[in-house]
């Protein structure tokens, strides 16, 4: 296992790459990093969790790390490990709260995820994951893939190539239709998204 | 993707790409504009949904890698087990082959029983007994490391000093008496000096005591000669005891005096009337043990 996967900046470039193989290998390197895994498990076990909790939190922390590195959402000076442990602390805190909302250690305050993170998206993923899942299950596989690639900042040419469309124009049209379908679905569940940001002045 | 005019700005905000003043300004604008806030919420949900899909894809990959790891571990364990079985099999074959080899080795020939040697002295003397095939083999000196000296000391018979003829004149002054006293006190060297002063009329008594003193002093060869002379002179008083002591002296010098010892032992055993016949038989038994 490679225990020195690179700096956050290097990983950001690799994870944000539109080359799926490069992204996959970088992700695998992080997932098989034993130093990160042990640190995550150690943190969870020292905060009331067991080994399985530690494994689960490690896995979820890698997903958050991937998301944040893709957005170049990190402080350059901080090491990957320190940055990752910050995510682990945040993930385990959320998980603990979810399990026993009233039983959180009083002295413990919610750890900050990191600077620059988007609170609305993180909130949705952390608190409304089940609703998102239900929503996405109603969407076609093709649309799900297009939304995913769009989020990963694939160009229309790359989406066309990956999806087997004739050209980028077709990809653009398909993407537009998918987003329209998604919006239509969202309108069926306004409680999922309408209250995310409430204007102070109506 | 047919973006709406504000979409790039909203996306940049949601991706955290704004500076702090830009972010505050944008949020102030959202506070004033409900439709902008709704667009932000809509796009945030779309992005969250896409991230949820990416996360799901990642989870599938994690599961796949975990399975691969488990299979690799299993393969490694299986490989290790197979390796152990192969090793065990090779070891078993080696053991069986070794056993088989051992079983098929030609038996080591045992040395043929040696014919009982005819004593050269006996041949020279044309002794009819010696030329016959002896019925009883001489005790083989199978243990060269055997302590013959200890055995000799065990077989040695101390002379009875009262049998040493007393001087008829002044018994307290004669060298023989003084030698006997010295001998009795364990002063064998002094006894020898005194015995040398004994006159010829008491020579046999003196020689007999001298031979015993020499034995005590570890001078077995000299003791042997002295006892042998007493036997040859045909001393009636010391003959048999000298014969036995002679044998014991030869025993003490084994294996150097092997031939002479065996011959003498055999001779005594042929004479049941010999006063040391039984002792000779016992000695032979001891040597055969």
Considering residues with a beta carbon less than 8 A from a beta carbon on another chain, report the largest interface and each chain's count: A-B, 50 and 34 residues
Number of strands of chain B: 0
Largest sheet of chain B: none
For the record, give the distance between the C-alpha atoms at the N and C termini of chain B, rounded to a whole number: 115 Å
- Output the number of helix runs of chain A: 11
Number of strands of chain A: 0
CATH topology of the largest domain in chain A: Rna Polymerase Sigma Factor, Chain: A
Shape of chain A: globular
Core attributes:
heterodimer, A: 202 residues, mainly alpha, Rna Polymerase Sigma Factor, Chain: A, 2 domains, 66% helix, B: 289 residues, Serine Threonine Protein Phosphatase 5, Tetratricopeptide repeat, 13 helices, 0% strand
Topology overview:
The complex is a heterodimer of chains A (202) and B (289).
Chain A: H1 8-15, H2 20-31, H3 34-45, H4 51-70, H5 80-99, H6 119-127, H7 129-137, H8 141-151, H9 156-163, H10 168-188, H11 190-193
Chain B: H1 7-14, H2 20-32, H3 34-103, H4 120-124, H5 128-131, H6 148-155, H7 175-184, H8 188-196, H9 203-216, H10 220-232, H11 239-252, H12 258-269, H13 277-288
Helix pairs in contact in B: 1-3, 2-3, 6-11, 7-8, 7-9, 8-9, 9-10, 10-11, 11-12, 12-13
Q: How would you summarize this macromolecular structure in one to three sentences?
A:
The complex is a heterodimer of chains A (about 200) and B (about 290). With about 200 residues, chain A is mainly alpha-helical.
Describe the protein's architecture and organization.
The complex is a heterodimer of chains A (202) and B (289). Chain A has 202 residues and is mostly helical. Helices cover 66% and strands 0% of the residues of chain A. The model of chain A has no long low-confidence stretch (mean pLDDT 85). Chain B folds into 2 domains: 7-102; 126-288, Serine Threonine Protein Phosphatase 5, Tetratricopeptide repeat, CATH 1.25.40.10. Chain B is 66% helix and 0% strand. Chains A and B meet through helix 2, helix 4, helix 6, helix 7 and helix 8 of A and helix 2 and helix 3 of B.
